[in-house]
Amino acid sequence: MATIKSRAGGGVGFNMTPMIDIVFNLIIFFMLVSQFYRLEVEEVKLPPASKADPHKETLQDYTQLVVNIVPPTNPQDKATRVVIGGKTIVTFVDGGDPPAMDPLIDLLKSRHEAVTANKQKPLNVICRAGEEVTYDIVGSVMIATSKAGIKNWWVQAARPPAKGGREIREFLGVANGS
Amino acid sequence: MKPPGGRHRGQGKMEIQMTPMIDIVFNLIIFFILMPSFEAKEGYLPSNLPSDTGTQSAERKDLNKLRIDIYHVEPYPEKKKEARVVLNGEPMNDYAELRKRLRETRRALSEQGRDIEKVPVVISPDQVVWQLHVVAVFDSAIDAGFKDIQFTVPK
Which architecture, in CATH terms, is A56-155? Predict the structure, then answer.
């Protein structure tokens, strides 16, 4: 039977080594990138907004600080957590008394002062609140931010997929007004 | 008999080097598999912080201001996912109507020669209203072309 022979006389050999090198490097790169991103960002289901601006250029004029507001993750859990840089700063318990906001105000104030002292770009708080977080909690974090002397507050939202995604309207059960 | 196929510089049989092609093809496959995950799935809505001194600015009667109230729906918490949206005292049926009314208002204000970027839209949500509705109203106002969006402190 006829076989294709290589120069050395053996069967055709595929040199996989360079490809595996490249693939492994790509895997390592993307794993590390996702790790760095996760340090700041908690996993929350963000509310959708068609006009949310995805372009990072708009962020370049500011020093960013991501404030995550994470709703309870299961029906038994009643705690909504305010998380910055992977650390829970304040916990709101459903049905409990409002927590002291001083730790959050102090942290925001120290970041704001550090940014001002280092003559960095103005501090901008990016609020990543889950869609089921209630406004009393978001409002408390907004007031704490304001008390810390920070003026810029952006809301992070999910952008609906370009096509084939759910329409925003169907997310929202708006009862008839009275 | 003459062997089939061409000859390589007159010596061995012609070889097709598959390795570089497979490298490139596999890299392209990986690139196109990963590319959708780089699409921006999140974005930002710039806004203004409320002051902690109260809601007087939003409650002041000012015809140059648009006010959108968001109320929870009774019985609560059974209907905690729902909200009732009221634009300048007029209840809206859904977000499509809110968007339509905001666009009409924007057009009317533009015809009056008003600078839309300076017309404040005050969003006043109830304490227990979900962020889902707050962002939907915020998004509707931006969609209509308003830029100065403000929030009241929780009622």
Answer: 2-Layer Sandwich (3.30)
Q: Where are the domains of chain A?
A: 56-155
Beta-ladder partners of A80: A92
The pLDDT value recorded for residue B33 is 81
Element (H, E) at B19: helix B19-38
Residues of chain A numbered 25-84 and touching chain B (CB < 8 Å) = 26, 30, 46-55, 58-59, 69
What integer is the mean pLDDT of B84-108? 91
What one-character-per-residue DSSP string does A116-143 give? HHTT-SPEEEEEEE-TT-BHHHHHHHHH
**pLDDT, mean over chain A:** 80
CB of B143 within 8 Å of a chain A CB? The answer is yes
Per-window interface: B 2-41 vs A, CB < 8 A: 12-13, 15, 18-19, 22-23, 26-27, 30, 34, 40-41
Q: Which distant-in-sequence residues (6+ apart) come within 8 Å of B135 by Cβ?
A: A47, A48, A49, A131, A155, A157, B45
**In order of start, what are the domains of chain B with their CATH numbers?**
56-151 (3.30.420.270)
CA distances A86 to A10, A129, B125, Å, are 57, 15, 29
From the centroid of its chain, how far is CA A143?
A: 21
- CA A127 – CA A40 distance, rounded (Å): 12
Verdict on whether the full-model pTM lies above 0.90? no
For A43-57, the DSSP string reads: ---PPB-TT-B--GG
Whether the complex's predicted ipTM is more than 0.85 is answered with: no
With bands split at pLDDT 50, 70 and 90, how would you rate the model's confidence at B51? low
Which residue in this structure is represented by tokens 């003559």?
A119
Give the pair of three-digit tokens for residue B84: 């009732």
Q: pLDDT tens digits, residue range A95-153? A: 888 999 999 999 999 999 999 898 888 898 999 999 999 999 999 999 999 999 998 88
